[in-house]
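Design a sequence for this backbone.
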């Protein structure tokens, strides 16, 4: 892997929430989250079974290649609770049977299993620096879509000056 993750696909807009999603090249969770932030978002925050199914259907087999997918759930400290990168609360999880297991005491990042799993589209905790090979997850970025952009008010436009044209 390399220092940064690159974009494989996107933006693809989820019609249910208006957010834009990107698929990144295989990399560590940390490199994927850094690239997500560079794109103006974070790794995907999965709030429901419907959102998870949408992400899985769009990216798990993108371009005919099965991919494990990093999402934005992680531990901030070794052995601590899992939290979303946005600190949002979510009651939704989809752990694979026996997960999370913190194997080796170092599994602080979460991915959606696609490859080599008897239950694809379920979650597993994994070490950020796991020697992945073909199973290295790809990040799924979630960013605000165009519908989330705040329009300037007339007063804000007037304060900016005459160079402001067409919003």
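Sequence:
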């Amino acid at each position: 892997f390399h220092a940064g993750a690159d974009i494989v696909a996107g933006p693809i807009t989820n019609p249910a929430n208006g957010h834009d999603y990107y698929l990144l090249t295989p990399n560590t969770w940390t490199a994927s989250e850094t690239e997500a932030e560079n794109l103006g978002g974070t790794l995907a925050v999965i709030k429901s079974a419907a959102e998870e199914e949408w992400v899985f259907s769009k990216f798990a087999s993108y371009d005919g290649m099965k991919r494990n997918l990093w999402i934005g759930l992680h531990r901030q400290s070794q052995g601590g609770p899992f939290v979303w990168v946005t600190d949002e609360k979510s009651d939704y999880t989809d752990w694979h049977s026996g997960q999370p297991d913190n194997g080796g005491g170092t599994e602080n990042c979460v991915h959606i299993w696609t490859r080599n799993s008897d239950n694809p589209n379920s979650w597993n905790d994994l070490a950020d620096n796991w020697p992945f090979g073909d199973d290295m997850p790809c990040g799924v970025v979630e960013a605000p879509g165009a519908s989330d952009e705040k329009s300037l008010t007339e007063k804000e436009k007037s304060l900016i000056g005459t160079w402001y044209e067409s919003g």
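The radius of gyration is 18 Å.
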